[in-house]
Amino acid sequence: MIRQAVLLVGGRGTRVWPLTHSMPKGLLPVAGVPFIELQFRLLAEVGVEEVILAVGTHHEAAWREYAAAVDSPDIVVSVEETPLDTAGPVRAVHQQLDERFLVLNGDVVLEGDLVGFVERAPDAPAVLALVRVEDTSAYGVVVTGQDGIVDRFVEKPPPGTAPTDTVNAGMYLMRRDVIERYPAGRLSFERVVFPNLVESHELGAVTIEGEWLDIGTPGLLLATHDAVAAGRSRLVHFPDDSARPWVHVEPGAVVEQGASVSEALIMEGATIRAGASVHRAVIGRGATVEAGATVTGESIVGENATVGQDCEIDRGARIAPDAKLGPGSITFSPPR
């Protein structure tokens, strides 16, 4: 049906730093599975055999190592020597593209009926996948006509004023000639290509239903694990679906007896000492949370960092890689 897809994974992942200090955002684990593999599983449903990864120079080595280890689909790594925005990376590989292909943002996946999306797509040069959301104030909504052609975009309408509840789901079906209308270089789908197509009545849209998984912020990464734990994902499951509340401890990580850990991602090589508490947080590779310390509030502890005894990490705090916090050096509570 569709042989080829382009995944836009060139961003630095600053919103989930320090997890992305040495790991691309697309390789962050969801219930033990690299997030990008969820996209591969979805793309396989429409017959995708080749994926072009549009990557940046900062994580090039990690992406090449990963691509070399993947048997299916076939992966082509395309490197942006300078940032090219969202459409520029697709323009950069135009000579390698099929006549029709899919484009996906690297940090979201809509677990909808991808076959139905392709089959229902209107005859237009580019077609957006749309998803319905309850709160449209954080998004630009997409207004379509009865013919499936996009009429206009409305950027982040105040609550109660949105003309529709459909937003861009980060997945596009495109024809190669669309991207070839523009010169090589920095180019945005959202600010240039799609508005131009709307003006010429050439941008289609299809609304599809399904769980929308997003790892773009610490809160969204944890919420994606919430969805998996609740059984709302069809692409990935926890090894033990009965565990409540959920916890994912990667191989090589240690949670000592007497530690309290819930709704948390404990990455490879991390250690949670007895008496420590970790809730709604991510502990990076090789990091240590000492006895009596608390990490919560969608906070992130970077790789090889140490949170000292009786420290309190809360309210979205981010501990840099290799940082060493002495006992009680950070706290939100008054002295006892």
General description of the model:
This protein is of the alpha/beta class. It has 2 domains: 4-214, Alpha-Beta Complex (Spore Coat Polysaccharide Biosynthesis Protein SpsA, Chain A), CATH 3.90.550.10; 245-325, 3 Solenoid (UDP N-Acetylglucosamine Acyltransferase, domain 1), CATH 2.160.10.10. The protein contains 7 helices and 25 strands. It has helices at 35-44, 60-69, 88-92, 114-120, 176-179, 189-199, 218-229, and strands at 4-8, 29-30, 33-34, 50-56, 74-80, 100-105, 108-110, 126-132, 140-144, 150-155, 166-175, 203-207, 212-214, 247-249, 254-255, 260-266, 271-272, 277-283, 288-289, 294-295, 299-301, 306-307, 312-313, 318-319, 324-325. The chain has a 7-stranded mixed sheet with strand order 5-4-1-6-11-8-12. Strands 14, 16, 18, 20, 21, 23 and 24 form a 7-stranded parallel sheet that branches. The protein has a 5-stranded parallel sheet with strand order 15-17-19-22-25, with no helix packed on it. A hairpin with a 5-residue loop joins β9 (140-144) and β10 (150-155). The longest helix has 12 residues, at 218-229.
